Amino acid sequence: MPSASSTASPLPSPHLAPSRQWAATALSASARFWFLATVIGQLFFAAYIVALYGGAAARGDLPGWNAVMTHGHVPGDGVGNLATGVHLLLAAILMLGGALQLVPHVRRHAPRLHRWNGRVYLAGAVLAALSGLYMLWWRGAVGDTLQHLGISLNAVLVLVFAGLALKNALRREFAAHRRWALRLFLAVSGVWFFRVGLMCWLAVNGGPAGFDPASFTGPFLSFLAFAQYLLPLAVLEAYLRCRDGGNAMLRLGMAAVLALLTVAMSAGITVAAMCMWLPRMHG
């Protein structure tokens, strides 16, 4: 899916045909709508991580990490507990830093901040992916093997996209760099998309459907383990192609699809905030 960065190009040329110009404007507006909803949702998620896990750590109550995570804190497992703590800290940093990195105003008017935030984001994404793989396969996690494979592929894509974003930045190929940065942002956000998608699914179905909440396994969760990042990445590719070379009909269609997906995502964000994040922040 697009971000503010992907709509940073100038407004549609006045020399475009009116229908095509209007379609380009509609597509840009839908991208900004998506980005705004995403930033709000990720700020909620970051605040939740800081309040629940950071608050427990500040109180010296590391077992409090187990309030949600099944293996958040394991007595005697110093390495594993450290990996979990690093992963949680990085999750909060990445939720805050990712959106900032994609704001065109920051890139244009605060280039030094953009560069340093980008370095922190790339390093954090790599460490989060590696610590996540360790937690998943060596420490244990809920779900079945298929879900674990989906999450592992997500981590691998984070590593690949981070490398390609860095490679293109060093080569000063900034158009390609921004595309890989967008892909990295969506891959890193997979854990957030999972929660938003799950909450939207629960709201639509009025409760668990397609999975067993006790074991946290089932066909829907297996699907979501892959869809949490593959679906946003597919939408992003469609958006970029429509933005850069689509005719008026394609751009209008993409704008409508993106707007509908943003409405569904916003519903998931609202349910997640009201039922999952805010109660644990104030509980």
Automatic annotation (TrEMBL):
Keywords: Membrane, Transmembrane, Transmembrane helix. It holds the Pfam family DUF2306. InterPro entries: DUF2306_membrane (IPR018750). Coiled coil: none annotated. The chain crosses the membrane at residues 33-58, 78-100, 120-137, 149-170, 182-204, 216-240, 252-279. This is DUF2306 domain-containing protein. It comes from Janthinobacterium lividum.
